[in-house]
Amino acid sequence: MESRSRRAFLTGRRLSQNPWEAFCQRVRRVVAGTFFEFEMHEGVGSARLIPRQGSDVHQARALCAEYGVVMALDGMQHAARLNDQPVLWVEPGRDMAGCQRLEPGGSKWFVQPGCLLGELEAAGLRQFADLPCHITVAAWLADRTLCDWDAGETYKSGIEHACVLLADGSSVNLGPFGERNQKPLDGLRLQQLVPVLFQTAAHPDALACRQAARWPGRYRLDALLPAAGQTTNLSHLLLGHGSDLGWVEWIVLDQEQAQPQVEAPYAERYSSRKNGQDELGTRAADLDARVKTLFDPAEVFPYPGQDV
Asked: How far is CA 100 from the centre of its chain?
């Protein structure tokens, strides 16, 4: 009878693999994009994926969930704690960098996550003129400093719709939501998510935070508490989300609605050390924990993601 060791020698297969090696092998097998494994750091693995198509990200998310690997957006600042756990850095490259008007002469643009801000400016979206031209739309949308509009004024971002891949593998479309919106919520996941979000936004903690000039939390729950005359838009929940809540597959940006965010007050007023030192900070931290749990209960994505 042929031994296992002889079979392993003949086939070139190892007798055993650790979970990180198995994860990397399976990612390489299923994705069409570029996968690169970094050297181990104190026994912890990390790698980068540049997807060629949307299915690459979906496959990677499933494997991250299976093997306990964090799926993080590359190209932005993340918390140092990501060094302590296996991470797959996903970089939206040139195969996911589309940018085009939805209608000839219209103000709304369909934009993919790998599009650069400099490309948006060159296309005529002047609100990006003073922002770093080299960063991707995904990195801009995840950055809390660059997306730090006043409380209740998330409409100034110009984001009209967004499609986001959640930790459980479902893709949900987020957009305007109000009394005049007769379109039913698409999919069971969204039907479960939205009512709880509105209940959370109606909590005394959220109402207290809404009274501040600047939203004190990480996640923009004030998108459900818009300024007078503005429509609630669920896609605004992704502004400054730190890549903690999901993977943004595309957005629709209204050029006429968007206004530049010139100042960067977030870096001056907030850090993980400052948050929680007063009552409002404690309330904001509690809201953040609830929102994170709703979107990503298994923590497939970073937690808390980005802090300064």
From this structure: 22
Instruction: Fill in the amino acid letter for 165.
Output: L
Q: How far apart are CA 36 and CA 48, in angstroms?
A: 5
* pLDDT tens sequence for the chain (308 residues): 444 445 555 555 555 579 999 999 999 999 999 999 998 888 899 999 999 999 999 999 999 999 999 999 998 875 446 778 899 999 999 999 999 999 999 999 999 999 999 999 999 998 898 889 999 999 999 998 888 899 999 999 999 999 999 999 999 999 998 655 555 667 788 899 999 999 999 999 999 999 998 899 999 999 999 999 999 999 999 999 999 999 999 999 999 888 876 555 555 555 444 444 578 888 998 999 999 999 999 999 997 644 54
Whether 256 contacts 101, CB under 8 Å = no
Q: Which of 221, 201, 197 lies closest to 294 in space, CA to CA?
A: 197
Cβ-contact 304, 272 below 8 angstroms: yes
Q: With contact defined as beta carbons under 8 Å apart, do 247 and 57 qualify?
A: yes
Residue-range domain boundaries for the chain: 4-90, 94-295
Please tell me the CATH code under which domain 4-90 is placed.
3.30.43.10
Other Cβ atoms within 10 Å of 135 Cβ, number:
18
Residue 10 to residues 7, 18, 25: CA-CA distances in angstroms? 5, 21, 19
- Its pTM stands at 0.88
Domain with residues 94-295, CATH architecture: 2-Layer Sandwich (3.30)
> What whole-number distance in Å separates Cα of residue 62 and Cα of residue 176?
29
For 27, phi then psi, to 5°, come to -60, -45
CA–CA separation, 211 and 26 (whole Å):
49
